[in-house]
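Lab meeting tomorrow. Please check the following:
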Amino acid sequence: MNSLALVTGGNRGIGLAIANALKAAGHQVVITYRMDPPPAGHNCVVMDVASTQSVDAAFDAIEIQWGIPEIIVANAGITRDGLVMRMSDSDFEDVVNANLTGAFRVARRATKGLLKLKRGRLIFVGSVVGAIGSGGQVNYAASKSGLVGMARSFARELGSRGVTANVIAPGFVETDMTSGLDDKRRSEIAGSIPLERFCTAEEIADVVTFIASPQASYITGALIPVDGGLGMGH
C-alpha cells in the first residue's frame, strides 16, 4: 500500500486537486480544513494552522486513526491584499502567521513521525510572487518567499534521515479566487505569461504527486515553478 499523505487546506481549490491526485496515485489521503469540510469521499480532520494546539491535536487524531503521515503537503494559507501604505500590522502578521508560521507548525509536528519512519516528503505550496513580488501583496509575497529558506533548512537538517523538503511555486491558477477577475484583468495577466494562459489546479497537483513519488527521491531543497514561465526560474 502506498504512503499516508496529509494535505492542509485540502477542502477546495489547489488543495483539493492535490488530494484527489494523490488519492488517484494510490496514496491514502487525509485532508485538513478549518471551516468548510471537503466533498464526501475524503478522510478529513479540523486543523487551524495558525494555532499550535490545533495542529498538534489534528496530528494526534490522524496518527491514532490512520497512522503517521509520510507525505506532508503544506498548502493552507490566506490572503489579505492591500496597498502597503494602508496595510495594517494585523494584515501583515496574520498572513505571515498562517502561510509561513503555519507551514512551520505543520512541518515541525510532522517531523516527529518522519524521524521514526526515517523517510518522508515535506512539500510546501509557495507562489511565483514569492520570487518576483506583487503590488498589493507585500504580506503574501513575504510569507511565500520565507517558505523557500525554511524548506531548504529542513532539507539540510533532515536529509540524513531520508526526508526531502521542496517548494512548489504556482503562478496564476484557475481557482475560485481568480475566477472573480474581470475579462480585462485576466487578459492583462495572461499576456504577461509566456504560455499566455492560467494554470489549472490539476497541473499543480501533478507536480506535487511527482515530488511525492519514489521517482523524486533525489530532489530536495528545490524551488519548482509551475507558472507558465512567469517567474523564469527565480
